């Protein structure tokens, strides 16, 4: 549904921090399903951990937030080019259930819970092969650049 070229229109992130490779489902105003393909060539694996590579949890949260950001931008009908940016401002109920390793395909899901005065709340989760990796409620703030 959205390849990386279109994703780059909705997220200001670039290598090595763009963590969404493809969007496969999008229901504007409701939910999104996206993927991050995890490769051993990711720069963070050099130090986390050299003999036992594990994707850092904070980057899993960031990937979920980026998927939510795409959903938010699409729902608002805005892009970063319009002078708008989405800040990740908080999380609740954050849990990690299993590590993410090279070769995994991270399925990122987000659904809108609420929006009030530019503060958006999303339910997010990440899975690999149907197994829950992480879940949370996250808050994002839409602000002018």
From TrEMBL:
List of catalytic residues: 48
Places the protein is found: Cytoplasm
EC class (word): lyase
Organism per entry: Motiliproteus coralliicola
HAMAP family in the record: FabZ
One GO cellular component term: membrane
NCBIfam families named in the record: fabZ, PRK00006.1
Catalysis: reaction(s): a (3R)-hydroxyacyl-[ACP] = a (2E)-enoyl-[ACP] + H2O
Any single GO BP term: lipid A biosynthetic process
EC code(s) of this entry: 4.2.1.59
Protein name (record): 3-hydroxyacyl-[acyl-carrier-protein] dehydratase FabZ
Keywords: Cytoplasm, Lipid A biosynthesis, Lipid biosynthesis, Lipid metabolism, Lyase
Main location as per UniProt: cytoplasm
A molecular function (GO) term: (3R)-hydroxyacyl-[acyl-carrier-protein] dehydratase activity
Protein family: Belongs to the thioester dehydratase family. FabZ subfamily.
InterPro entries on file: FabA_FabZ, FabZ, HotDog_dom_sf
Function (record text): Involved in unsaturated fatty acids biosynthesis. Catalyzes the dehydration of short chain beta-hydroxyacyl-ACPs and long chain saturated and unsaturated beta-hydroxyacyl-ACPs.
Keyword Nucleotidyltransferase: no
Lineage: Bacteria, Pseudomonadati, Pseudomonadota, Gammaproteobacteria, Oceanospirillales
